[in-house]
Amino acid sequence: MSAVLRSYRRIFQLGHGLMVSWAVFGAIALVSQHPWIVLIEGQAQSFLLGLRGPVPAPDNIIILAIDEYSLTQGDLYRAEPERYPFLAPLAIWPWQRQAYAQAIEQLMAAGAKAVAIDVLLVDPSGYGPADDAALATTLARWGDRIALAAAYDVSSSDFGLFTSLLEPIYSGRAGLINLEADADGKYRAFPDRGIENLRQTHGFTDQLPSLAGATLAAAGYPSPSQPSQQLFFYGPAGTFPTLSFVQVLDPDNWPLYADQFKDKIVLIGPMADSFQDRKRTPTDNAMPGVEIHAHALAALMEGRSVSAAVSNPVAQGLLAAVVFGTVGLGLGYRLTQPVPRLLGFMGAIATWGAIAYLLMVHRDRLIPVAIPVACLGMGGVTYIATGAVSNRLEEQRLRRTLERYVAPLVAQEILNQPDDFTSLTVGQKMPAAVLFSDIRGFSRISYELGAIETVSLLNTYLDVMVDAILAYRGTIDKFIGDAVMAEFGAPTSQGPQQDALNAVSAALAMRQALATLRLSLQAQALPPLYNGIGISYGELVVGNVGSVQRLEYTAIGDTVNVASRIEGLTKLIGTDILITQACYDLLKDHIVAVDQGTHVLAGREHEAVQVYGVISLKGESDDLYHQVQADLGRHLDQFPRTSKS
What we know:
Blueprint: H1 3-32, H2 35-52, E1 61-66, H3 68-71, H4 73-79, H5 97-109, E2 114-120, H6 129-142, E3 146-157, E4 160-166, E5 173-176, H7 191-202, H8 211-218, E6 242-244, H9 246-249, H10 254-257, E7 265-270, E8 278-279, E9 287-288, H11 289-302, E10 307-308, H12 313-334, H13 338-363, E11 365-366, H14 370-402, H15 408-416, H16 418-424, E12 428-439, H17 442-449, H18 451-471, E13 475-480, E14 483-488, H19 496-523, E15 531-546, E16 551-556, H20 558-573, E17 577-580, H21 581-587, E18 591-600, E19 608-617, H22 623-636
Parallel strand pairs: 1-6, 1-7, 2-3, 2-7, 3-5, 10-11, 15-17
Antiparallel strand pairs: 3-4, 8-9, 12-14, 12-15, 13-14, 15-16, 17-19, 18-19
Helix pairs in contact: 1-12, 1-14, 5-6, 8-11, 12-13, 12-14, 13-14, 14-15, 17-18, 18-19
């Protein structure tokens, strides 16, 4: 096995090994739940939510907003208190508790089902006991239909962490407003999950529900049986209808809005930018906290539970890695070309993303997205890169193999048209010129020199002959002892006339090269070498011939037989280059030739063959021809003309 082939196989196996490595990396990343992994997966889920877009939310939730407009009404009251007496509770922030009491009374009178206040009322009113009493009276009247905000407070100081439960000073239903951000700073966890984490971390022992849970109970809805890990977002900020708080207190405007609140659940909470209560969520980068509670309430009402498809992070990570690792390996084994591999891995990535999207949208189930997509993407890049290197090595191996038989330029043309070359490997008919060459009297020379000197001399001779053949786009078919067989026009052709001209030009170059070699041999006191060359043009069959164990690229057919026979005929005629009539007809305007008559060849007794001796190309000197003819005649006189050379 060649080093190139071994390298090819090692790189091919490297691609599979790296795909397995990416799968293992993905498994470790998903199992670790590292903050960076949580961040990346969160971003991917946000992207899928963006593709989903808003979905219809329950129409019985309304937010009564403590917005900038409501906050500025205090200025209006202070400027004209007699004109706007109803704005007195809103004169200064924090507002009087009477403001909330009046709002609750108005909402309940309009038929609201429940009211939640997302404002911490954990200290006595700064406006005196009468203000607290007003709200307490209202809360006592409406009882459990009102939910007030509570919170776990965790603050740090030089003495360590201080933890406390901030509860409303009023009796009644309360719910925690704490929200937990993920590693990427986005609030996607269901409030109950963050609350439970605070309890486990800081030892809170109460069992208060979230504000959404308390509001759900206040509205008379049953609690869901299955807790949700992640919050289902119906859309970005503004998904739920909102009304400015001040409208409830305005005696002129309120009748215009009162009907909208019948059978509605109302959340009262801050939405003004000055409260700095806007949070980043998967669907919006500035969603007010009260609206997050509205999404949580809506999800509880509809039983929308968003959680991982596989609850155990370790099992989910391992299962995901096995799946995308198997997919990657399958694609790597089945697809071996760069473009199909690229399309295959892109298809796998799109399919994974589509499955994750469909599970999230239609089943409220989450599977890892970013890490599997990244690992599949890196696997695809790895396979394409190693495949490119493997293909390059294979091309080099094939090029080296081809260049043993054809000129480098022809080898490149074959590599540029692999489909054409593939068809030749199974056999194809095509017209081409076939050249046979044989050394005259080589049997006697080899006997005189001995084995080692003979092999050295033969290799020297073949080197210069092959160079001449390859220089004219010839394909070395085989060496038969001291004989050389070559084709011109197979496996690539430049047209009949050019192929034939290349063959004759190569023969003339071989004549010149051999004349030069004889001078070198004479200087080394080695016997001179002369050869005979026969060229035939016609149809032949080229392709791989042989057995399963050993194949050989070669040419067969009558054209090959004729070329071999007229090469032997050169010895009887006493010349060095002979061509057939078909070859002469193609080149008669380009060469100077002498008619050598018709001859009956072995195996073709029924038909004589017309042959021509090649002198030179037109316009070139014929001195070498005459010199070779004279020297060859004297050389052949040493051997019987009918004997085997």
